[in-house]
What does this fold into?
Amino acid sequence: MKTFSPEVKRAMLNVFNGYCGAPNCTNKVHSIHHKIQNTKYNRTKYRLLIHSVFNAIPLCEICHTNKSHKFKITEQQARMYEEYLQKLKDGVIK
It folds into this structure.
């Protein structure tokens, strides 16, 4: 999978009411952006995170072009999310 599932897209659109997730932007969503890049390396290292809602932000076309770099997450944050998602998957967290 190279993009978000329909479920993740719907969830993000619902949470943001169809609007851009950038602060102070009132434009409609154009696309769902990956906070950590969707590369082969990241898909291998962050199997659970890469296509999850934790790695998604809905953006309008303008913000996707001009501001998407502002929503990146750090390696430390990515590891934390991946560990959390793994615990959820393993049933350690309910």
Q: What stands out?
A: The mean pLDDT is 94. The two ends are 26 Å apart (CA to CA).
